[in-house]
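Lay summary

Proteins are chains of building blocks that fold into shapes. Our project writes down both the chain and a compact code for its shape. Here are two examples, one after the other.
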Amino acid sequence: MNFFGLVFCLFYSIQIYASTDKTNTHPDIFPDISNKDYQQLWQKYSDTKKGNEIIDPNINEAISAGEKLYSWIRLINSTRTEENKIKLTGPGTLRGIPIDQPMKYSPTIIADKLIKIKKELNAEMSEIIFSNTPVKSEINTSNEEFIKNAREISRGYDHAVRW
């Protein structure tokens, strides 16, 4: 009797697995991936139907802000030497994510972060990131100030694409 019970369970498990939906388009995202990897995953996902269904305006704005930021950084860096390029990450700048302090994100957290970012940005950065003003190859602030603000925008983007 145990043998037949085991065969039945095995057969039933295979049937359940075979009938599950395998069209999950959500990629696995590790907490420490680079901004470039986030962008590539987001681009791939946003090209799908599910990626185009995001309707929360705060999430969309955080994603747009991050994409514009990365375009701006690429343009700035295209005119600089390797030693002077804007880099948001590097040795000693990555924050670990301890297992007992996981990242938390939701539409409300993303919206709150977006409000905070907008309040803290200088006028030039805010105008370029959150309006139709085109990016330019220079900045009117110190590299340190730009990087500090850019990291906050980048974190908002990271939370939004994860959501």
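And here is the second example, written the same way.
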Amino acid sequence: MIPIRLISFIITFSAFGAAYGQSPSETPAAVSPPAVEIMNQPGSPVRLELLGSDSFPLSPPNKPRSSLRTTIRVRVDNVGEQAVGGYAIVFQSEKFTNVSAMALGKLLEKGQTNTFPTSSSAEWDSPVWASVDYVQFEDGTSWGADRFKRSVQIGRFLDGRNLAIARLEEILINHPDAEFHRRQVKGFIGQAISGMGPESNAVMLQTAFDFGYESVLKGLRAPSKKVADGQEIARKLELAQIVRP
């Protein structure tokens, strides 16, 4: 089981109603989101663009509002000369800091846009600044200060994914549909791993490793004409997951 206590994930707002016992007809009233400013640094190989933000009360509308949760979504464009394999985006206000690390299974090539928006959810005060802290290129070189050491987190994700792929290759020896299942795994786009706090800790790094491993399982279990076979292969990989380096 993946430990998730210290990890902040993309939150589905429909869950709030269930959490507070609202009936289906009681939809939380939207409120004005905090101001968001994109801080694109000169020379950065990726550029951020604000896609939007939404704020919702954390208590039912018929009760006094205790606090707000705001989700901020940004798009990432590769405006540099090299293919990008991962990056870290910092969302920061006077009270909160959230760092969203994205490990890419499919490289973000020059001129491409990541179609999987990077987002951050928190009880933000206003204003919120979004900036690029770290970019990892295909050849292993990097750009950015990496103030929050998310390069390590991205590396652990890739370690987990690469281990699962190596074990998958052992399972696929002499398998009649080996190439089909390899393509299923390669279709993985990326995984966002967000966290509060200044640096990656042991729990976050283990979670990143597990996410990397399980990204291969998800590819095998994705709907396809051979999904039953893929699920059986994924089950074998999952049993091997308890053996960690």
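What can we say about the second shape? The helical segments are 14-19, 150-171, 178-186, 202-221, 227-240.
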